[in-house]
Structure formats: structure tokens, C-alpha cells
Amino acid sequence: MNSIVKYLAIAWASVKNNLAYVGEVGSRIFFLAVILYIFMQLWKASYAHSPKELFGGLSINQIMWYLVLTESVVMSAPRVSHRIDEEVRTGTLCVQLLRPISYPLYWLCTIMGERVIRFVITLIAGSALSWMLVGAPENLGSQLGFALLAIPLAFVLDFLGHFLIGLCAFWMEDTTGIYLVYWRLTVVLGGMMIPFQLLPDWLSHVLRVLPFASVVYAPANLFMQPTWPILLQSLAQQTIWIAIYSLAVWLVYKQAMARVASHGG
């Protein structure tokens, strides 16, 4: 019980720390507003010259709210890999390891606290803008409820991916390159800008089973299609990928700690 309280305190401290940076919040909202407005104009032009059937049967309202969800998920992700990279290079990792807490769980709680605040603020701002541009969804309550059920697992899965990249700092001087590749794969293969319904069937089926889809596409798709079968399928796929990523983190972290010990850390 004391351990749970300890990690909850870490998450809460991260929440309060992020609430203190009003300037960063404002810049994120401004950037989101610009992105959504640009996409809105592009989709409006597309719908003006093409029948709805060419866009997977999706209305412009659904497309815009889909973008709100995907942008909120992607933009809320802190760069934990960069922080771990810095701790390894500066040697502050040794101080962290002396604490009576799990190093991976410490970062999980810290990042989750930070990401929840970022996500909520970004989602509220994006929803307000989308509401003004295209109006409210047909069933906002149920759609948002289903989407939020998949958000926690999406965040955990994304954290594990970033944490794996950070652990590569034990063997590499700089992990920025790997992070950029991972981020671009998440954006492109995760369906941030284009719903999979608009892609060819063969490509859509391939992308749906990748871990990137479980991070970005799954919550947004549940917003567009809030049904129990899709929810259960999404949660099952997220759980499978979390198990795979967790195993990878455990194996790499074990090797990293052995490397620290072998160097007298």
C-alpha cells in the first residue's frame, strides 16, 4: 500500500509541476489551433469537389473530431527518451538508482502525470475549435467515453516505446535519431492525419495490427465508432502490445543494469 501511495505522489507532483508552466500550455494550444485550421480548410476543399462516398463514408464532422483526438494524443507525449539519455550521459542515473523505488515505474508515473495534463488541455482546446468550425458530434458523451477507455493503455504503450529508446543510451552516444524515426512512424503509421478507412483495404489491415495504431488510431476510431466489439478488440490488441513491449523493456533494462555494474556504477 505504501508503495502505491509513493508512486501516486510522484504522479501528482508531475501534475502540479506541469500546471505551473502556463506559457508552454498556451504555445501548445496555439500550435494545435493552427494545425486544425489548416486541415479543416484542406478537408473542406476536398469535400466540396468530391462525393462523401470517396472518403470512406465519413463526414467532415467526423474527420475533424478524429483529428482532434489524434493530435491530442500525439502532441501530449513527453520526450522521456531524451531525459533518460541525458541522465545516462551526465551520470545522474546513478543517483536515481539509489532511490528506494523502481526506476522504470518512477518514469512511468512521472510521464503519466505530465501527459494526462497535456492531453486534457489539448483535448479541451481542440474540441472548442472543432465545435466552432464544424459543430458538435452526434453523440459526444458516448463517443468521448469510449475513446477515453482506450487512452490509458495507449499512453502506457507509448511510454514503453519511448522508454526503450531511452535505454539505448547505454550503448549509444545520442538516441535522438531513433526517437525521430519512432515519432515519424507513430505519426504516419499510427493514422494521425488520415483515418485508416480512407486507405486501401490491404494497407488498412496491415496498419491496424501495428503498435502505432494502438497508440493513435484506436482511441480516435472509438470516437468515430463507439461500439463494444471495437472497444474490446482495441483493448485486447493494446494489452498484447503492452505485454510485448514490457518484456522488451525488462530484457533491455536488465542488460543496461548489468552494464552499469560492470563499469563500477
Which features characterize this protein?
globular, single chain, 265 residues, 12 helices, mainly alpha
Structure explained in plain terms:
The chain is mostly helical. The chain has one domain (2-262). It is built from twelve helices and no strands. The longest helix has 35 residues, at 228-262. The radius of gyration is 20 Å and the shape is globular. 32% of the residues are buried. The model has no long low-confidence stretch (mean pLDDT 87).
Short overview:
By secondary structure, the chain is an all-alpha fold.
Anisotropy-based shape: globular
How helical, in percent, are the residues?
A: over 70%
Structural class: mainly alpha
Number of domains: 1
The number of helical elements comes to 12
Poorly predicted spans: none
- The run of helices and strands is HHHHHHHHHHHH
Oligomer class: single chain
- The pLDDT mean sits at 87
> In this structure, how is the largest beta sheet organized?
none
Task: Tell me the β content.
Answer: under 5%
CA distance, first residue to last residue: 31 Å
Radius of gyration: 20 Å
- Report the count of strand segments: 0
Write the layout of secondary structure elements.
Elements: H1 2-19, H2 22-49, H3 60-75, H4 80-90, H5 93-97, H6 103-134, H7 140-167, H8 176-189, H9 201-208, H10 211-215, H11 217-224, H12 228-262
Helix pairs in contact: 1-6, 2-3, 2-6, 3-6, 3-11, 4-7, 6-7, 7-11, 7-12
